[in-house]
Amino acid sequence: MSSSPIVLGAYPLPASAGRSVRWQFHLRTWLPVLACSMIFAIESTAYFGADRTSEPLKRVAEALFGYDVCVQWDLIHFIIRKTGHFMGYGFFSLVCFRGFWMEFQGAALRLPRQLRAHGLAILATFLVACADEIHQSFLPNRSGEFSDVLLDTCGAVALGLAFFLAMQAAEWRRRARSRHRALACADAAA
Predict the structure, then answer these.
(1) I need a surface site. Which of 33, 72, 90, 91 has the fewest CB within 10 A?
(2) What do you get for the CA distance between the two ends of the chain, in Å?
């Protein structure tokens, strides 16, 4: 499969690249992963526990939807936090996918590049989620729960699958356009 414009094949590493160029390539490849990891580290502190986020989020919900939201606030807050887990780690998985995709360009391995990149992105997400929950188990107002790790990994799988399907659709459209152009050229020549 060629590099779809969705995947950011924007920074190819030249075969004759020097040490400086390779360093810049790896920095551009993995800096977004590091940035996401730092966001998780900040959010994994005692300051972002459920006891600290409830009141500010409740005020926002009341401003948007009125005071009726208070009746079911505990459930709504739980859903907001778990959706944040699912989407945040799903996004992290996509950022990891980008890094692995760029890293594997030109590599001659047995598994297809896309499958390797998605598999490693999901594994990286699982490991980071485990580390996050272990860290939270040492905080007084947080708890480390394996169910959150599973939720985070499900987010990685779901967003990875959606992205995989989008890549396949983009590739299918690109090939269909190529076939259409080839047929149009053949008809014009005939």
Answers:
(1) 72
(2) 31
